[in-house]
Specification:
- This is Response regulator transcription factor.
- Keywords: DNA-binding, Phosphoprotein, Transcription, Transcription regulation.
- GO terms for molecular function: DNA binding.
- It comes from Streptomyces malaysiensis subsp. samsunensis.
- The longest helix is centred in the C-terminal third of the chain and has 15 residues.
- The chain has a six-stranded parallel sheet with strand order 2-1-3-4-5-6, with helices on both faces.
- By secondary structure, it is α/β, with parallel strands linked by helices.
- α3 links the parallel β3 and β4.
- The termini are far apart.
- About 6% of the residues have low confidence.
- The chain is globular and about 50 Å long.
- It contains ten helices and six strands; from the N terminus they run βαβαβαβαβαβααααα.
Length: 225
Amino acid sequence: MTIKVLLADDQTLLRSAFRVLVDSEPDMEVVGEASDGAQAVEIARAKSADVVLMDIRMPGTDGLAATRMITEDPRLQDVRVVMLTTFEVDEYVVDSLRAGASGFLGKGAEPEELLAAIRIAAAGEALLSPAATKGLIARFLAQGDGGDGDSAYDSSRLEALTVREREVLVQVGGGLSNDEIAARLEVSPLTVKTHVNRAMAKLNARDRAQLVVIAYETGLVRAGH
């Protein structure tokens, strides 16, 4: 299957460069370009995009607002958003994840990283920037109200999870892959994937990135632990 990609950035030159790169791959194609968030949402609906490369800072409707509009639209439930940041350390990273983005990537990433990001997002995996450390994600998420009772996710939501699913969620929150979790818990990667999928269903998480957010916001995982 061909991955349909939408490019949303107010810089025409950057969009053109991304288009050439994406269209050069046999398994993906650019189905549209947008210069602001509102236009991105319209094109995502019209073109049935699979992945949106969304710049955070754009005039008019910014990337953050556009991401919320996409993730809150039932018609776009299968669309995955990868936020593009000018710097690896961006103040809006945590807001992007909470808005429903599947992850973020620095604009200075290598071409191979960008293409990998599109494939990872399309597969429903979390893309926590290849150049970012687990500690970076933890620090950003810790800036919220996770675990203090005022966050969007009440810790009581975790009651729906089995003990094993909680254990797996802790590892997901730590940034580990299924293979790494399998090795740590001494189970098969397929078993881990099953637990992850069940946790996503029970917690109504769009993808793995949302599980990471929930793990921190409920206090199940905390920065530095």
